[in-house]
Amino acid sequence: MASMLLNSMRSCSVSHSWAMRFGKMSSSSVVQQFNKFYNISIPWEKNLFRTTEDIEIQATSHKKTLARPGVKNIVLVEGVRTPFLLSGTTYVDLMPHDLARAALQGLLNRTGVPKDAVDYIIYGTVIQEVKTSNVAREVHRHTHTPAHTFTLQSGYSIMTGYCQCDAVVAGGVEFMSDVPIRHSRKMRKTMLSLNKAKTLGQKLSLIGSIRMAHLSPELPAVAEFSTAETMGHSADRLAAAFGVSRVEQDEFAVRSHSLAKKAQESGLLEDVISFKVPGRDIVSKDNGIRPSSMEQMAKLKPAFIKPHGTVTAANSSFLTDGASAVLIMSEEKALAMGYKPKAYLRDFVYVSQDPKDQLLLGPTYSTPKVLERAGLSMSDIDVFEFHEAFAGQIMANLKAMDSDWFAQTYMGRKSKVGTPSMDKFNLWGGSLSLGHPFGATGCRLVTTVAHRLKKEGGQYGLVAACAAGGQGHAMVIEAYPQ
Asked: According to its UniProt record, in which pathway does this protein act (predicted)?
């Protein structure tokens, strides 16, 4: 399929140049577009005398709510995360459950929710620590609250969680500083046989059978089991298939880091909690945000397909340590306990496609489905948060979403879903810059949408991500009335 896409998509491009999309607009232009989008008929000059609260009320009040008769409303009460750090840095001596507990404790501290009020705990993690296979139970093991752990790269424990009970803690953790390394299979078989050997002769015979090749370890890789291909390699092929240039990828990466830096310095990343690392300093911010210039980006060599690939270390998300946690409740219970929810969690979908050539196209497949389920269109969405696994992956998805040919040929749709406006897209940075602890990213995305909806006065947000196995997911989030 890659060669077909390469030939057919050469003319496929996003409708506006990236320079225009990323460029700054004048304040009058912003207000004019704001008024046009929300159908505000007052001349923009007069809005200078209106308060932010007035505009927010007017912006959100005209759109329909997604509440359904007979279906209980599920709300996001609060979401937190530890700082996301480059693997091998400050968290290096910890274990995954240490980070997961820190996130959960931060959530409990911020909300004050009694431990016995939580009905269930769900955590996601991908590369599991074998000593704590059910890390969800380890983060809160001294209570009677049941808990389970699931594995889905870039997955949403939050999607699974909110269907369960009236009060759920959902979260995720990934610890890439210390991943499990196994002996080779031949060595494992020998060691297991040695453990069962009963006589000295049997033991000596097994020991004598060990060869140097048996001692080669098996290192875990961010790769697909079915294809044995790393995600970076898949991203490189996908970018080539959709004609995404190295310059486009580097521009997007620069955008992500620049926006993340601005959000960090402006105090917008309020989901980040401070964490006292035992034996080290207090960590209070992400350390992977590193704005760079296009000239510096251009110096890096391809990381996966050499020498002609376009995916580099700088336009890819980095190996990250971190954890997240959210408190989700039925609206009735949240209000009864005195909470002011942040947002409604509305419709969501999971999708699955070819894990070889379409591994990272989850957002393209999940976005139209979740919009249809919610009865919305792309123009209804005020805030977009897409997981940035690779800059090339994001760009390829945007081009696929803007292609009638792709929709008709591969998705069985009559027409394209369209692309998100970059004025609404990942405005506080993304996984390229903030980091991507596999199991923890979903909660970060959802919490970010809730915060942005409140800050920007929007009503609907959409989260989308690709996932391992050629899967993907999306969720529609609705602002809670302020």
From this structure: Lipid metabolism; fatty acid beta-oxidation
